[in-house]
Amino acid sequence: MKRKFFVYGTLREGEKYSGIIDPHVVMRRVVRLEGFRLFDDGRGYPLMVEGGEGDSVVGEVVVVDDPDGRVLAAVDRLEDAGEDIPVEERLYRRVLVEVDGEEVWTYLYNGDPPPGARQITDWVREGRK
After folding, report:
1. φ, ψ for residue 27 (rounded to 5)?
2. 2-7 and 56-65: which strand pairing?
3. Could you tell me the CA-to-CA distances from 33 to 64, 67, 101 in Å, in that order?
4. How far out from the chain centre does Cα 63 lie?
5. Pairing with 1, which of 17, 67, 73, 102 sits 20 to 30 Å away (CA)?
């Protein structure tokens, strides 16, 4: 089974957790997701939240080969978004978003960005400092 993700931070190609999905990647392409905002939390992690008109986030649509669901489960664990965690305790929540007319999974921060978080558009170019 093929799964599609929009990744915007540490799962992007060459970033610190990309090795979780790299062996399973069938295709990657850089895209801009409209209607969302991205923040650098100041501790080395990106946080994406819903935004509004004019907001956007640069990331990648990644298609992975995941016949047994292990890739999805591994990414859920990384993002503290597993179904075994109560919703209010999850760090991120996995949601479907539309990118270029197709639905893909992504992870939204499960709360408001912390005070001092810096809004950015592209984690690779502006974040991870």
Report:
1. -160, 145
2. antiparallel
3. 19, 26, 11
4. 13
5. 17
The domain segmentation of the chain, as residue ranges, is 2-126
Q: How far apart are CA 34 and CA 53, in angstroms?
A: 8
pLDDT in tens, 52-106: 999 999 999 999 999 999 999 999 999 999 888 888 889 999 999 999 999 999 9
CA 78 to mean position of chain CA atoms = 11
Helix (H) or strand (E) holding 104: strand 102-109
| pLDDT of 129 over the 80 cut | no
The domain defined by 2-126 carries CATH number 3.40.50.10420 = no
